[in-house]
Amino acid sequence: MINIAVIGPGAVGSTIAFDLKYLNSNIQLLGRRAETLQFYTNGDTKTAYTLDVAPLHVHHQPVDVLFIAVKIPQLDSVLSEYSHLLHSETIIILAQNGQGQLSKFDHPHVYQGVVYISGQKKGNIVTHYRDHKIILERNLHTQKLSKLVADSALNIELTEDINKAIWYKLLVNLAINSVTALSRSTASVLEVPGMKTLCRQLLLEGIAIAKAEHILFDHKIVDDILEIYEGYPSNMGTSMYYDILANKPLEIEGIQGYLFSIARKHQLETPILDSIYALLLAQQPIIDK
Ligand code: NAP
């Protein structure tokens, strides 16, 4: 029997664990502490399921597949205490937004997932709203994983061009997360005069940074992303908006900070990104991760 663990019993990790619960596998959901979660799925807020979480630091046997679904600022603490879960062939899926974190791993089979799972955790209540998809690069390991989960609700989609999928999500996150976090407003901030222009300029800089890394997007993508933003309900918050309101560390390092470092690498001029990045850094709370 396959052993699977999911570290990070939040919106994404709990959904992955719940989706895989009925497979013929041994699955553990691991967090900072033992707790029992109330879990709602697919936007159905009437039917509650329970999910048990075991503490990561207590000893567990090595697993064959490990999903890591913590926020970017929480990754270092996971990496300092997860080695007991690994054997040489363990496949690790980093189910996170952003880019640039894989270099922190000292393990051969780690793959960045592009996560399309939407949900929220409040206390011990996790509400999954919609989507069950993780996009991964196509290789022998991920093909094996995709077959393994084929009978579950988790949709592992394999692509030949993972970098494009990662950068597309990075761009979608870039503008809306920045403006909602900095203004401490929901998507309603898009109605402020000049805000859509600011998003457009930021996205154009993002596309230029992608191009320097040989990730090519048509400029039409800016209109497509702005159209996605316009489809958001005005009372919808983004994860960076919720994190800033809760005074939690922001995922800047893997989104705006990552793009900033790549822009510097290629000596690109990115005045909008530079300003946004500095302003976000200034908001970053100095608190325990
Ligand atoms: P989340 O709800 O905040 O969940 C993170 C979980 O990890 C929390 O339960 C947290 O515990 C736990 N954790 C933190 N440090 C840990 C540690 N050292 N050991 C074990 N567990 C630890 O975050 P999320 O929304 O699932 O997001 C995970 C990633 O997916 C992020 O990169 C996010 O941007 C991305 N994403 C999220 C969504 C979404 O809709 N939520 C959509 C797409 C992508 P505590 O509860 O104790 O803090």
From TrEMBL:
<dbReference type="InterPro" id="IPR013752">
    <property type="entry name" value="KPA_reductase"/>
</dbReference>
<comment type="function">
    <text>Catalyzes the NADPH-dependent reduction of ketopantoate into pantoic acid.</text>
</comment>
<dbReference type="GO" id="GO:0050661">
    <property type="term" value="F:NADP binding"/>
</dbReference>
<dbReference type="InterPro" id="IPR013328">
    <property type="entry name" value="6PGD_dom2"/>
</dbReference>
<dbReference type="GO" id="GO:0005737">
    <property type="term" value="C:cytoplasm"/>
</dbReference>
<dbReference type="InterPro" id="IPR008927">
    <property type="entry name" value="6-PGluconate_DH-like_C_sf"/>
</dbReference>
<protein>
    <recommendedName>
        <fullName>2-dehydropantoate 2-reductase</fullName>
        <ecNumber>1.1.1.169</ecNumber>
    </recommendedName>
</protein>
<dbReference type="Pfam" id="PF02558">
    <property type="entry name" value="ApbA"/>
</dbReference>
<dbReference type="InterPro" id="IPR036291">
    <property type="entry name" value="NAD(P)-bd_dom_sf"/>
</dbReference>
<dbReference type="InterPro" id="IPR050838">
    <property type="entry name" value="Ketopantoate_reductase"/>
</dbReference>
<dbReference type="GO" id="GO:0008677">
    <property type="term" value="F:2-dehydropantoate 2-reductase activity"/>
</dbReference>
<feature type="domain" description="Ketopantoate reductase C-terminal">
    <location>
        <begin position="161"/>
        <end position="282"/>
    </location>
</feature>
<keyword id="KW-0560">Oxidoreductase</keyword>
<dbReference type="GO" id="GO:0015940">
    <property type="term" value="P:pantothenate biosynthetic process"/>
</dbReference>
<dbReference type="GO" id="GO:0004616">
    <property type="term" value="F:phosphogluconate dehydrogenase (decarboxylating) activity"/>
</dbReference>
<dbReference type="InterPro" id="IPR003710">
    <property type="entry name" value="ApbA"/>
</dbReference>
<keyword id="KW-0566">Pantothenate biosynthesis</keyword>
<keyword id="KW-0521">NADP</keyword>
<dbReference type="Pfam" id="PF08546">
    <property type="entry name" value="ApbA_C"/>
</dbReference>
<comment type="pathway">
    <text>Cofactor biosynthesis; (R)-pantothenate biosynthesis; (R)-pantoate from 3-methyl-2-oxobutanoate: step 2/2.</text>
</comment>
<feature type="domain" description="Ketopantoate reductase N-terminal">
    <location>
        <begin position="4"/>
        <end position="132"/>
    </location>
</feature>
<dbReference type="InterPro" id="IPR013332">
    <property type="entry name" value="KPR_N"/>
</dbReference>
<comment type="similarity">
    <text>Belongs to the ketopantoate reductase family.</text>
</comment>
